[in-house]
Amino acid sequence: MTETDEIDPAAAPSGPGCVECERDGGWWFHLRRCAACGHVGCCDSSPAQHATAHARGAGHPILTSYEPGEFWFYDDRDGSLAEGPDLADPRHHPGDQTVPGPAARVPRDWVQRLH
């Protein structure tokens, strides 16, 4: 994938965790970042699936991993994976942040709650 109106390399991430889970007191398994605006949301394995909801609601179909060591881009329209441009830092959530997270809100039975 290359820089387009669907990918803005200058858009900084919205924060270290899922915007909606932080607001609502939820938790996430893995994090995804919107390549157009930087919105950070939780992945589809997470209970709330905020990243995909943002992609579809905002019309921003390109997501990228917000996990350390992962550099793929995903197109929600067709499910394709590809490499893409470097994005504004930070490229992933803080290295000391737990997965799942945030640690204080992850329930003991979190594995059973994954999608």
TrEMBL record:
SUPFAM superfamilies: RING/U-box
Short name of one Pfam family: zf-UBP
Domain UBP-type: 18-78
Organism superkingdom: Bacteria
Coiled-coil annotated spans: none
Chain positions covered by the region annotation Disordered: 82-115
Compositional bias ranges of the Basic and acidic residues kind: 106-115
Name this polypeptide is given: UBP-type zinc finger domain-containing protein
